[in-house]
From TrEMBL, chain A:
Entries under InterPro entries matching the protein: SoxG (IPR007375), TrmE/GcvT-like (IPR027266)
SUPFAM superfamilies: Folate-binding domain
One Pfam family per UniProt: SoxG
Source species: Roseovarius nubinhibens (strain ATCC BAA-591 / DSM 15170 / ISM)
The organism's taxonomic lineage, starting at the top: Bacteria, Pseudomonadati, Pseudomonadota, Alphaproteobacteria, Rhodobacterales
Record protein name field: Sarcosine oxidase, gamma subunit family protein
Automatic annotation (TrEMBL), chain B:
Protein name: Sarcosine oxidase, delta subunit family protein
One Pfam assignment: SoxD
Any one GO molecular function term: sarcosine oxidase activity
GO biological process: tetrahydrofolate metabolic process
Gene source species: Roseovarius nubinhibens (strain ATCC BAA-591 / DSM 15170 / ISM)
């Protein structure tokens, strides 16, 4: 088997927040009827979580399920287990109208760490990142300058971003520029 | 700058998260229609100064299509609603009527 690599292995930048590429992350796009009990059971087996509510992400250890659209979830699971988990989902949902696809190698994931991570992100996305509007547990798809991105806060001090792998370098450059020392907008912190 | 509320994912987003998709409530004329009908379906679009019903897509977001009632002159958004409808919901019509009494747009008023 080929030696799988993430988009920018080990890429890091330290500005007023710390930025790093997260390495290989298993991601499964699961589309179907989110109200279905069978789908809920399959998600429970795959990630150990319930089906997230609208624009929410639910986490359990190193796994998570995120709400992408009214008929789509993104399951975050260990990279090595993706094939087995998809096989289990396909068995569990046999006969239902659904789609489960391995998108691990089609995406890149970054993490911003630091008290001012909201400020760095606010430079790039037309999203209200204030604590009243966006906090851990929320999941938001939007854009980051010119590219589509999805973001959430694993905790109050960090922010994670997923984008397409093909624009990973652009995303890293954007986030680095946004985190440049001395350029803190101090909107939120 | 427009602020649109996506009825599919509940996001209140600004215009750059969305993509305009032209006129809403188009009646399609395909195979079997006359040349004149097909021409009008393709090319004769509403271009009002005032109340307009449009299709929008939450392109940088949930990816779903929806419809919006807005004013091309004041840029006020009267409301957004599901794309799975054949006419604007009554509450949005009422809101438009409150601001623009006597409005009409194609067969709706």
């Amino acid at each position: 088997m080929s030696d799988a690599k993430s988009a920018l292995p080990g890429a890091r930048y330290e500005g007023f927040v710390k930025l790093r590429e997260m390495g290989l992350q298993g991601m499964i796009t699961l589309r179907g009827d989110l109200a279905s009990a069978k789908l809920a059971a399959a998600v429970q087996t795959a990630t150990g979580t319930a089906v997230p509510g609208q624009r929410q992400i639910v986490t359990e250890g190193d796994r998570a399920a995120a709400w992408m659209s009214p008929d789509e979830l993104l399951l975050l699971v260990p990279y090595a287990e993706v094939a087995d988990i998809i096989a289990a989902i396909e068995t569990a949902l046999a006969g239902e109208h659904f789609l489960a696809v391995n998108v691990s190698d089609a995406r890149a994931m970054f993490r911003l760490e630091g008290a001012l991570c909201r400020d760095a992100m606010a430079k790039l996305s037309p999203v209200d990142f204030s604590e009243a509007a966006f906090c851990p547990g929320d999941f938001r798809r939007s854009r980051m300058a010119q590219i589509a991105a999805a973001m959430w806060m694993p905790d109050g001090q960090s922010l994670q971003v997923i984008c397409f792998r093909s624009v990973a370098q652009y995303a890293f450059d954007l986030l680095s520029a946004a985190a440049a020392p001395g350029s803190e907008p101090r909107l939120y912190g | 700058m427009l602020i649109l509320d996506c009825p599919c994912c509940g996001v209140s987003g600004e215009e750059t998260e969305f993509h305009a998709g032209g006129e809403a409530h188009l009646k399609r004329f395909g195979p079997g229609s006359s040349d004149a009908e097909f021409h009008d379906y393709l090319f004769t679009k509403e271009n009002p100064k005032g109340v307009h019903l449009e299709r929008w897509r939450h392109a940088n977001g949930c990816g779903k299509w929806f419809l919006a009632a807005r004013d091309t002159m004041t840029l006020e958004v009267y409301g957004t609603y599901s794309a799975q409808t054949t006419e604007p919901p009554q509450d949005i019509k009422d809101k438009i009527s409150a601001k623009r009494p006597g409005w009409s747009w194609r067969e709706f008023s």
